[in-house]
């Protein structure tokens, strides 16, 4: 039985949700109110997390697969588990593809995408094969790098006098509706709804009673950070330009010019992009592995290769970046709420079936038998 | 298994070299300035390429120019750039490009395609400074500048110097231009460059050998851009007034006359050390009134007026006099801009931020409303010091003679 500590859980939540999010100006549909949209989405994300934690409390020792089974029964629950596993692999693949697209777009213009994506996926697959414990230790290692890099970036942007808070005005120019439209379903699905993967990992935390507290705290910290980064980009670029550029944070950093030598800090953004996407890809990959392993009974190490191949193959399905983004925004976003809102709420409403109650409460007997 | 592992490690080593996307220093032509012209229905792009040999300290021989200028032509920017390989041995490298000079013809045609190409490609950076050129941009690139080896860098330093020391113009980076053109009023202003002096220009190193050059590149006039096209120019003093109005004065020297009024000669000057302008829009029966509040501090640099500056009342009078002068400078700039009807003052943006609902109605016919807008300036000047002497020199002479 693999186990992770509560502080490791906190770092995992933070890095996973940070991911590549600050690089983009999410919620730009609400124009200069993007940061308000982010804040609203963060609150909604907190409510969703409360639902997930509540579900987890019902059966503290099991992952999402068994939660489905306890609530919907063996067959329907099994079907949902399979779907969830595929969806998680798909989300992982979207990040792999993002990685390929962003790298070719902004950094290595002439390197073929297949090798870029293969390299990052190999690293992720290797990490995944070592298991969750190794992965969270890697996250612990990466965390200070991320913190220092973001701190340096933010400081330099402020020092170069690029930040003008007046770019956030006028607040709510067209009333609150644009904000609401930006939050649902876009922002709630990405990034905040992605806390659903916690249902895979929470049961692995050693300190069971701290799970809720740690998750809420980490989500609150990461939400504050994401809202602040969103507002920062808006204060530098303004609504029109941040909508126009595909990588607003890179644009911001390219504007930094200090004392005639501190410029071209793109490398920091690249570093953050790579770390963020690596954590995201690997987390979703492992979540997909664990879920698939729970439903098939095959050990997760043996699934690393087939699911890796699946992710890699899927990442070539979209012919170009426009398709990739269009599918992400117009199609995936319509399906995602099923996993992050509908199913959890249904579980909350249905309650655990009678025949699984003892198993859910005890948990241990079954877990040990399985391992 | 062991050998497999060893092999795998060796294979990985091949990937670590990072040779896939390499750019060798001796394969690239580093560009220090770019010029854009519009000629015979085509874009003409000119490049000022740095010759590394000429600027290296060991073999830097005087007698040959440090840069080489050439042009390519095409229906759009990128095709013109790609044609460069037909006449140069190296790949053009834009990451160190410092300035973009847009010829008047190209600016009147429209800067949209240029800005588009800047946004879409990651090798062109938005920190590049933009200039307009009266006449051909290529001609401007060919000019050598005394003191500096690379003219592109020299122009970049010139605008930085102007921005910090005199503030009649400010540095407009591609990013500033983009932001203003995408903003509420879709108008911006870009400083112009001219070749001043007699003669054809300073384009050979031989000419730099003399103590004066026949011509020189200088900043002159501010081009007003509406949409993406150049629509007019305002002169240096008007530009300075505009900088006062838009809060872009860093340090500047303000000259003023003893009595005020336009007839008397401006015989004295004060150095402005800090200046800030706050604008508040107000809506008064269908028209807009912008209230500007200017606060400035400075030092007296030159004083050719009567009056004993050791008396506080006299200094206060002087401060009022300078305030009048600031108002006059601003009024001059404002009238010029108003006549052209191009909102480079940022008033539109200001109204948009303060009165979003009213702006919705105003934005449609802002072009008509803008010239009707009234400006009300209030200035506060504080002289920190009157310098190391008291009364004016001539005054003192007279006193000494009389006594």
Automatic annotation (TrEMBL), chain A:
Keyword Cytoplasm among record annotations: no
Name used for this protein in its record: Spore germination protein
Gene Ontology biological process terms, A to Z: spore germination
Primary localization class, coarse: membrane
TM ranges: 9-28, 34-52, 72-90, 110-129, 141-163, 183-204, 216-239, 267-290, 302-317, 323-350
Family: Belongs to the amino acid-polyamine-organocation (APC) superfamily. Spore germination protein (SGP) (TC 2.A.3.9) family.
CC terms in the record's Gene Ontology section: membrane
UniProtKB/TrEMBL annotation, chain B:
Residues of the Spore germination GerAC-like C-terminal domain: 222-387
Transmembrane residue ranges: none
InterPro entries reported for this sequence: GerAC_N, Spore_GerAC-like, Spore_GerAC-like_C, Spore_GerAC_C_sf
Pfam family, one: Spore_GerAC
The entry's keywords: Germination, Lipoprotein, Membrane, Palmitate, Signal
Location of the Spore germination protein N-terminal domain: 21-192
The organism's place on the tree of life at top rank: Bacteria
Main location: membrane
Membrane topology, from the record: Lipid-anchor
GO CC terms: membrane
Leader sequence segment: 1-22
Compartments, record wording: Membrane
Any Gene Ontology biological process: spore germination
Family as reported in the entry's similarity comment: Belongs to the GerABKC lipoprotein family.
NCBIfam families: spore_ger_x_C
Protein name: Ger(X)C family spore germination protein
Species for this entry: Paenibacillus soyae
